[in-house]
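Lab notebook, bench 4. Still working through the backlog of constructs that have no structural model yet. Next entry is a single chain of 378 residues. Request: give me the structure tokens for it.
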Amino acid sequence: MSNERNKKILLELVKLPENSRCADCGAPEPDWASYKLGVFVCLNCSGIHRGLSSRVKSIRLDFWEDELVEFMKSTGNVNARAVYEKAVPPYYYRPQENDCSALREQWIRAKYQRKEFTGETKYPPLAYTTGFHEGILWKKGKENMHFLKRKFVLSEREFTLTYYNKEDESKGPKAVISIKDLNATFQPQKIGHPHGLQITYQDEDKTRNLYVYHESSEEIVVWYNAIRAARYAYLKTAYPTGSDEELIPKITRNYLKEGYMEKTGPLLKESFKKRWFILDSQNRKLLYFKDQLDAEELGGIFIGTENNGYSVKECVPKHTRGNKWTCGVTVETPERQFVFMCEQEREQKQWLNALRKVLSRPMSPQDYTAEAHIRYKR
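Model written out:
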């Protein structure tokens, strides 16, 4: 069989629906393949496979022997998934193409190298399956950029994440955090470390952040999935009739949009001040902080629906004392108007699109409760 004919067969195989996305991150139109595993993968994931000595080739550029093509025909993404993803826990995070490299690498290593999801009993049990995890993480200081070692203890039974300022637990914990409102999301660029993890939680009506990392990508991903396991157990307890389809998206989430905007006060005449904003679409909140690595929010704005008196539009504010940016965004709520300024038109459009996406989603009973709580606080 000629090489050109082999390439034609491979290109036909990769057009099949079951092979048309990367076997590991779901990226469309994979151009590479692991001829050891029989899966079609994207360029980014092919690099990780190469690091595992998984033997990869370009579908279009490399020479393909007949027997390798036959193996790809007989295996493919679906058959490989049936073996290597046979028993993925429902809470285990399956990375997407835009996720950080630590998540994608450890997903690939867990599947093909450590064979964590083949359904065989593991001994000792996998750390994220035990309902309890403890260890040392580097944590950013509340008032500075220094990262110090802190002991963390996660308990699924207690639904808590506890951390200690000293490795000696006898002096008591610095904080005991409820799993109820906890979120965890990878933030390597923001934190300045490839394994950076942001942990967000509620404390006395305030949103607080912890910024942590571990030198080992495997260990930080274990922490992430252990947190997801505890969150999943909590949600199953809190919503006993909820299906996995309903509950899994609520375990953890990435924020819809983050970035700097300038903000003025309620009279719209105060000086504009630069603030870091996070749009949490699940909680329908636009949170703002003095800086991107602040431990505590300065405030939050609930984003309801147009039917309930909320709207968003671009604007050119009349009073611009102190502002340096010119691309305006106005958020109207039943109580007041908020005016923000973006540095560039591209950022303005991204914020408008993200806010409109939240506005367009119907409010749930829990959303109405959250809205009433925010109004009561004011």
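Notes after review: The chain has ten helices and 17 strands. The first strand starts at residue 32 and ends at 34. Flag for follow-up if needed.
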